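seq as requested:
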Amino acid sequence: MARMAAKTIITALAISSWASFGASQSRKDVPPAPLPEAIARAKTAFLTNGGGSDLAYDEFYAQMKKWGRFQVAPSPSEAEVIIQLKYFVENGGTKVWSSTNTYTGQTQVHSRQITEPQLEIDIYDAKTKDLLGSVEDRPRLAVREKNREKEMINSADRLAFELQQRIEPPHPEVRTN
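struct tokens:
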């Protein structure tokens, strides 16, 4: 009996310490890693569409022009970095499951393709063509074409914002007492 109580107490302590550790960690607690110096000091960028969505590229291009951090170069040879936006759908295989009607006892088997759309920015050194960094976003799934377009635009906006935050992180407020 005492042995069972000890196991219960140890298990409860383990779960509570694990839960408190998990609760104390959040995305806000993790500072973004610095980007390579080549990206931080670059003044010119060639923006290119790696394929998949002209709409996302057009929105990303507009956001980059609006930001004004980089002078958009007309060709890769005139840029310090190349920023490529690409859209792709990752195939996660097929999910198969079954359900049984408890009244009739009939079992039905269901399946569906698991797909995950993604937008990704790859940043390359224009001279060496080395990959310097990547940022990705996953547009939310939508059934209607109009909503898919909205999600594509929102995803491109989030990518542009994420890139801005990594290159020019917001400065913490300075408090004076």
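The radius of gyration is 24 Å.
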